[in-house]
Structures are given as structure tokens and as C-alpha cells.
Specification:
The chain has eleven helices and eleven strands. The protein is α/β, with parallel strands linked by helices. The chain has a five-stranded parallel sheet, covered by helices on one side. A two-stranded antiparallel sheet has the order 6-7. Strands 8-9 form a two-stranded antiparallel ribbon. Helix 7 links the parallel strand 3 and strand 4. Helix 1 packs parallel to helix 3, helix 7 packs parallel to helix 8 and helix 10 crosses helix 11. The radius of gyration is 23 Å and the shape is globular. The structure holds zinc ion (5 copies). The site of one zinc ion (ZN) has 8 residues, from loops. One zinc ion binds next to loops.
Length: about 325
């Protein structure tokens, strides 16, 4: 779909006589990722009117790659205005251009937000977060349930306490969170549209090992009760288990992430150095024409420099 949108962008207006979009189109609009929603507006006038005229797709706004680096305060303002003050969830993933001012302007206009995800929005300060949460929780029946702010710099223990109080959540450091906060699920935003009434939650805590306020993860192993930040406890990028006792060398990845031996064994590996990419970085696999396997970026670079030697090695395998 993205491809066809791009193709149509240049000839906008030429497909106007195609008539109104079929009914089914309205049904899927609410489920489209933001990027595709914005693309739809470029296809033709009737689709643009359909997207602009339908409030449903705009009630849950998620900005993630590749849009994250382009979204400024003003663009965010325009996008969220489509919800007409009824925004239910806002997820800005690593949107480093968004500032306190931009966030607060959106929050002021949209008091019914129940999920606010702003992890990695490094332009937002702890003070900005607290102001936003105050605005969203200043009535008795406030809706805010979930707050994700890991990756925002300089959040202190006092800030965390303030946020927990505002959310009506008892701070549960040194205890297990229910549901568990799992490292490999940290980017999973599939629950953002859910209406389920979870207990209030916040994705940062005081690490029981180092005392720093940051994302603290639980172990997916039933038998293990380890809990700590990623600096205190190394975890497998794929399955989130702690790497205590795992030898780093025996399961080395082609990216910088840690992999447990079980996951390392399962993943496809570079034909030359035998290191796998985790799923998140699998797009870095370099494919060779007419060859099933792949090379990691490092081996591929070497390949360019030293192609004949490498070719003879991989095709002999
Ligand atoms: Zn720690
Ligand atoms: Zn694993
Ligand atoms: Zn563990
Ligand atoms: Zn390699
Ligand atoms: Zn990786």
C-alpha cells in the first residue's frame, strides 16, 4: 500500500473521477498505522475526505518509525487536532523533536487520554511529564491508566514518587509487577488500543540492584525471580531471560544485543562469521544474488574489499 501511495503522490488529482471509496474502506481506516493513514490521504480526494471526515482513526495515535524523526510539536498538534479533543491514547516512540511545550499543548486539548506512551522522547523533561500527568489526573474520575516514559532523562526518585501518587498507584519497587515487565516486550505497543481496565502502571521503577530510576525488568523464567535494570542484569534480546552464567562468546550476535544460547541456536546466521542478528536487526542481513544465506554488515564490507576469497569460502560450504 505504501508503494502505491508513493506512486500516486506525484499525480495527485488525476484519479479524482474514481468515485467514493467502498464502504469496507471506512471499516479498516481505524486499524491502519498512522503512516499508512497519512498515505491514504495522498491517494485521491475521496479517500482524503474519508480519512479527514472520520474521527475513529484519530482517537488512538501512535507515532513510530519511520515517522518518529519527522514529527515536530506543530505536526503533532495538527495530527491530534483530528481527534477533536477526544484522543484516547497517544504513543510517541522516540519522537525526539517533541518538547514539553508540544506535549502540554496536546494534553490540554485532550483531557481523556488513558494511555500516554512517550518512551525515548528525549526532548521532554521530567517536569514536562509531571505537568502533563497533573493535567490528565486533575479530576476524580480521571482516565489515565498507563504511562510509559523510559528513556526520558534525569527522572529522580522524587519525580517517580510524584507520578505514582498522581496515577494513584502504590510504588512497588522490590516487588514483582503484575503483569511482569518483560525486556523483549518493551517495544510491544499492541495493547495500546485495548480497553481493558488494568491497574495503573508506569514503565520505570527504582532498580532494586543499583537504585537508579529506569526501566526495571522481570524474568520470564518461572523459576527465576531476578529483577533489575538492563545495566544490572543482562537479558536476551529475543526472549528476555537473564544471562547469568551464559558465556558471551558462545552466543555472540552480529548486532550489539545479547542472545541466550537457545535463541542463538534458532536464529539464521551470517554465512561467513556464523553470528545471527536478533529479529529487530534482521533487516541488516546483506543478501547475495543467487545465494540463500546472508552476510552480516561487517562481513559484507569485508566482502567488498576481498570478494574473491570470501566467495570461494561461502560457495564451498
Ligand atoms: Zn540497576
Ligand atoms: Zn533468548
Ligand atoms: Zn532471571
Ligand atoms: Zn558475519
Ligand atoms: Zn539486535
Amino acid at each position: 500500500m505504501v508503494k502505491s501511495c508513493a506512486a500516486n503522490e506525484s499525480e495527485e488529482g488525476s484519479s479524482e473521477q474514481s468515485g467514493p471509496p467502498p464502504e469496507a474502506m471506512f471499516l479498516i481506516l481505524a486499524y491502519l498505522p498512522l503512516y499508512e493513514l497519512l498515505c491514504m490521504r495522498q491517494v485521491c480526494r475521496s479517500l482524503r475526505d474519508a480519512v479527514n471526515g472520520d474521527i475513529l482513526p484519530w482517537l488512538n495515535i501512535t507515532v513510530e518509525p519511520p515517522l518518529h524523526s519527522r514529527v515536530s510539536d506543530d505536526i503533532l498538534m495538527k495530527m491530534t487536532a483530528m481527534a477533536d479533543g477526544r484522543l484516547a491514547s497517544l504513543a510517541l516512540l522516540n519522537c525526539f523533536k517533541i518538547t514539553d511545550d508540544g506535549l502540554l499543548r496536546v494534553i490540554q486539548k485532550n483531557p481523556r487520554i488513558n494511555k500516554l506512551y512517550i518512551p525515548g522522547c528525549t526532548g521532554i523533561t521530567p517536569e514536562g511529564v509531571i505537568k502533563a500527568v497533573k493535567l490528565l489526573t486533575n479530576s476524580n474520575n480521571h482516565r489515565l491508566k498507563t504511562l510509559k516514559i523510559s528513556g526520558i532523562y534525569n527522572v529522580t526518585k522524587e519525580d517517580l514518587q510524584t507520578l505514582c501518587n498522581l496515577l494513584g498507584k502504590t510504588q512497588n519497587h522490590h516487588h514483582h509487577q503484575n503483569p511482569k515487565n518483560l525486556y523483549h516486550k518493551r517495544r510491544d505497543i499492541s495493547k495500546i488500543r485495548g480497553e481493558e481496565e488494568d491497574d495503573p502502571s508506569i514503565d520505570i521503577d527504582e532498580c532494586p540492584k543499583c537504585g537508579e530510576v529506569r526501566a526495571v525488568f522481570d524474568c520470564p523464567r518461572e523459576s527465576c525471580s531476578c529483577r533489575g535494570c538492563i545495566i544490572c542484569i543482562r537479558r536476551c534480546e529475543e526472549c528476555g531471560v537473564c544471562m547469568v552464567g551464559e558465556e558471551e562468546e558462545q552466543s555472540e550476535a552480529a548486532c550489539a544485543d545479547d542472545l541466550c544460547l537457545g535463541c542463538w541456536l534458532k536464529l539464521p546466521k551470517c554465512s561467513f562469521c556464523n553470528r545471527p542478528y536478533c529479529h529487530q536487526h534482521s533487516n541488516q542481513q546483506c543478501r547475495l544474488p543467487g545465494y540463500e544465506g546472508f552476510l552480516c554488515v561487517i562481513c559484507n564490507d569485508n566482502f567488498v574489499q576481498n570478494s574473491s576469497r570470501l566467495l570461494s569460502i561461502i560457495y564451498m560450504k
